[in-house]
Amino acid sequence: MLRFYGLRVLKDYLGHVILIGLPIFMITFMSYINTPEGESVAAVAGTITIAFLLMFHIFGAAYTHEGIEKDFFTPMRMRLKAAPVNPVRFIVAMIVYSVLISFAQTLVILAYSMVVLGAAFQNLPLVLLLFIINIVFSQLMAAVVILKLKKAAKAQAVMMAYAIGGPVLAGFMFPLPENTFTRFLERYSTPVAHIRTAITGVLNSDTTDIVLGAALALAFIAIITVVLVRLSESVKT
Fold first, then answer.
1. Cα(205)–Cα(6) distance, integer angstroms
2. DSSP 3-state assignment of 150?
3. From the CB of residue 115, how many other CB atoms can be counted at a distance below 10 Å?
4. What pTM was computed for the model?
5. Alpha helices by DSSP H, the chain
6. Which residues contact 208 (CB under 8 A, 6 or more apart)?
7. What's the CA gap between 69 and 67, in Å, rounded?
8. What tens digit of pLDDT does each residue of 167-225 get?
9. In angstroms, what CA-CA distances link 192 with 19, 55, 93, 138, 218?
10. What pLDDT sits at residue 173?
11. Three-state SS string across 174-237, please?
């Protein structure tokens, strides 16, 4: 079972091209056009890399919702139900491999940003841990959405809305008006905003932001895990 899901994710060559090539292109383009005159591109590459990685982690959740649709909402469902294995284990395997491949893609993009663009990241191990939290939440959310909606196209639409709306509210896409409400949105509006708050805390050596942002994101992971467990009961019948 584990080998099957591993090969399925690894053989999605188009997905790898999109989820590695497109972020690299966007990071490079945005870094160069946002570099102040007379400064190195490295001055902005780090911040831009973080923003695009957080956003593309959400797009990478397609591995989970497309895989679960194939397994449980197509004729293949009957074959899986006949297997002497709890169907929930298939969902767990899909999520685990999706997390691993999304993290591997993150490492490739980070390596490019550091080697080619000269980006530097303070306390990189902690930043990587926060990336993992964002990836895990995104994959869990995708699993919940597909189990609820039962169609990959509908799940993709919901995840797309979150992938765009979340970063907009968090101030990734463009600066929001400066006021108390928008500052609240940038820090606490969504789990991706929580992770951004934590990563900003890492870069600014602000322990309060690190702990608060990570704790809020982990709380959302706990909540969505409970929801997923309840929805997973439906695949047993």
1. 38
2. coil
3. 9
4. 0.90
5. 2-10, 13-16, 22-34, 42-59, 62-72, 76-82, 87-115, 124-149, 152-169, 180-188, 191-203, 207-232
6. 201
7. 5
8. 888 888 777 888 889 889 888 899 999 999 999 999 999 999 999 999 999 999 999 99
9. 18, 8, 24, 9, 11
10. 75
11. CCCCCCHHHHHHHHHCCHHHHHHHHHHHHHCCCHHHHHHHHHHHHHHHHHHHHHHHHHHHHHHC
Tokens of 193: 């905003």
Q: What is the pLDDT of residue 37?
A: 80
Cβ pair 57, 100 in contact under 8 A: no
CA-nearest of 107, 99, 129 to 49 is 107
Phi, psi dihedrals of residue 205, rounded to the nearest 5°: 55, 40
d(CA 166, CA 62): 17
